[in-house]
Amino acid sequence: MNTFFKVTIALTIFAFAAVLIMLSKGLVYTGPYALAFFVLLAVSLCSSPKTKSFAYTVLIFGAAAMALYYPAFFISYGNFKYATLIIPLIQLIMFGMGTSMHYQDFLGVLKSPGGIIIGVVSHFIIMPLLGFSIATLSVKLAGMPAEIAAGIILIGCCPNGMASNVVSYLARANLALSVTITSISTMLSPVLTPFLMNLLTGPLIKIDPWLMVVDIFKMVMIPIALGVLFSSIAKKRSTWLKRIMPVISMGGIICIIIIITAAGRESLLKVGLLLAFLVLLHNIGGYLLGFWSAKAFGMEERDCRTIAIEVGMQNGGMAAGLAKGMGKIATLGLAPVIFSTFMNITGSLLASYWHKRKPGPAHKATLHNPAEN
Description:
The chain is mostly helical. The protein has helices spanning 3-23, 31-45, 55-69, 86-99, 108-111, 113-142, 146-157, 163-170, 175-200, 209-234, 239-263, 265-296, 301-312, 316-325, 334-355; strands at 76-77, 80-81. Strands 1-2 form a two-stranded antiparallel sheet. It is globular and about 60 Å long. 49% of the residues are buried.
């Protein structure tokens, strides 16, 4: 370890100690020290390949903390409201997702449809119903505001995000199956997400499913299609774009989290801990039910890992954009933001756990891997 990281680790410990000391004077005084702690911790984690993957997650916590401590800076500038940036940022992220996709990702559907069907169907059954159960119970038993609880259903009704593909790769799962399930679930989202939301949120809030269809096409389908088209036309010349888009996407997600956290600060302070617990339950429940649903169909462990990850990890950016489209970013948008934060943590931990444990031998009938072409 070089001197730079040794100094950074020392400063991280100092910043954490400062947070503890300032807590005695009141939470409001800990702001600068808490932000310094998260930034320094993120840098310190980069000192080792084993911890480097957690740096981004720590930055997300730092971004959320910054929005909670200083919300006024992230709500508006003059007459311009920062919430208007959410949809363009999501479109940029979805464009980046499109540049990483290829028509060959879908060929696996024709060659080995079983795993894909199980993965997609499990995803759109388990997460919406689990979200509905958790949200309904939270309103009835804990007095959770209906619009905030409905955000749990919203994140459950969305398709997978690209983060699931990264986690699948690190977890020694079936990457080709992961990419295909993500692609297919995203393509189905303009139909299934509005339908499921309209079906399940009836007791809590009223939504316009047709407006949601339009929003999904505008935010997700068109940018992805443009990304795929650009990648196909540019081919090797788009390599540079594929390298920088993940970084841009991560930056975009952090910006979205800051904006939504600042907008929903008052609601988040009231129900933050309970909502965090419920969202974490939703996320972990998705992993467990996804894994055992694949086991029930006799899938090999490598594919069971994939289904677990694809079911448990959601497209939080899309959910946040839909909440913005409905004008409920400060309530409906809170659960997706918290889900995205915890999803990065649990996904990294799950990938690390499975990476150390080699899955059983694969069967001969495996899904075609586009990367082999």
